[in-house]
Amino acid sequence: MMQTRVGWHVEMEFREDDQHTQAVAMVRLPDGTEVRARGHASRHRTDVNQPRVGEEIAGARALNELAMQLLTKAHEEIDQASGRTSHPIHV
């Protein structure tokens, strides 16, 4: 049995200040399609400034949104290929 290996290229970028972290996640699929999503984190004024924690939270939120967009894309492609409405794909 032959196996096919496929790779996805994922990029993550962050913008930060003392109170906020914004993340943008992008995945490039083998067909050239790019899917992008954003995430955000805010530091409470009494919390210690830990940029890495803000990146982890904002990054996780961006990746979660990216996952939801990919599930929606897959669901729509299933419907188009089958010509019917399929059951929703759940996480």
Automatic annotation (TrEMBL):
<dbReference type="InterPro" id="IPR015057">
    <property type="entry name" value="Rv2632c-like"/>
</dbReference>
<dbReference type="Pfam" id="PF08962">
    <property type="entry name" value="Rv2632c-like"/>
</dbReference>
<protein>
    <recommendedName>
        <fullName>DUF1876 domain-containing protein</fullName>
    </recommendedName>
</protein>
<dbReference type="InterPro" id="IPR038070">
    <property type="entry name" value="Rv2632c-like_sf"/>
</dbReference>
